[in-house]
Amino acid sequence: MPPSLRTAQLGLMVAALLALVGCARHDHAAMHAMHHGGTMTTAAPTTPAKLTPSTPTLSSGYRKVTAPTEARVYFTNLRNGSTVTSPVKVGFGLIGMGVAPAGFEKAGTGHHHLLIDVAEVDANAPLPANDQFRHFGLGQTETSVELKPGTHTLQLVLGDQNHIPHHPVVISERITITVK
Questions:
Q1: What is the DSSP string of the chain?
Q2: Separation CA 102–CA 85 (nearest Å)
Q3: With the C-alpha atoms ordered 145, 175, 99, 32, is the resulting torsion angle positive or negative?
Q4: What average pLDDT does the chain have?
Q5: Fewer CB within 10 A of the terminal residue: the chain, N end or C end?
Q6: In a 10 Å sphere around its CB, with 0-12 CB exposed, 13-18 middle and 19+ buried, how is residue 44 labelled?
Q7: pLDDT for 28
Q8: What is the Cβ-side half-sphere exposure of residue 78, based on CA atoms within 13 angstroms?
């Protein structure tokens, strides 16, 4: 194996290991963003989107898919306060669960949804599909999003095979980015 490939694989393994133990995830994100043309600034903490309390069973009788309490979803290349250009590359990270396409029912899996400038999420209903709630039902783990210049909030939420958030909800921190 060429040394450069071995070094790249080692770097990915170290980043994944650090993310698993909750250390230096943001430092890795900062380095990645800097490498891909973004800049990092210090920003005030972002208020999370309002989330309705999650219930294990919906009024329709639908039993929500259970998520492990340690499951986490996060941005791999952005962090609160990032300054970027459009189109914005957004990487999705997931710990403690696997990714599966929408419509595919398998315990311990789900698929990503990107929330753009969303203030409230209903934890007990299918996530809508529109410009603010982007679905990645094919199991994608990154995207490129056209955003107008200005300040935007981004948040990730994992959905089950029917686009319904898990119980408990697997949701990232809500970050603010600035698009030049």
A1: --HHHHHHHHHHHHHHHHHHTTSSHHHHHHHHHHHTT-B----PPPPPPEEPPP-SB-TTSPBPPB--TT-EEEESS--TT-EE-SSEEEEEEEESSEE--TT---TTEEEEEEEES--EE-TTSPPP-SSSEEEETT---EEEE---SEEEEEEEEEE-TTSPBPBS--B---EEEEE-
A2: 30
A3: positive
A4: 83
A5: N
A6: exposed
A7: 40
A8: 32
Report the C-alpha gap between 57 and 86 in whole angstroms. Answer: 40
The residue type found at 43 is: A
Tokens of 12: 């990915």
pLDDT of residue 47: 78
Q: Which residue ranges form the domains of the chain, and what is each CATH number?
A: 25-179 (2.60.40)
**68-100 as b/e, with b when 16 or more CB fall inside 10 Å?**
eeebbbbbbbbbbbbebeeebbbbbbbbebebb
Residue 102, Cα to own-chain centre: how many angstroms? Answer: 16
**Which of 14-18, 21-25, 69-73, 104-108 reaches the highest mean pLDDT?**
69-73
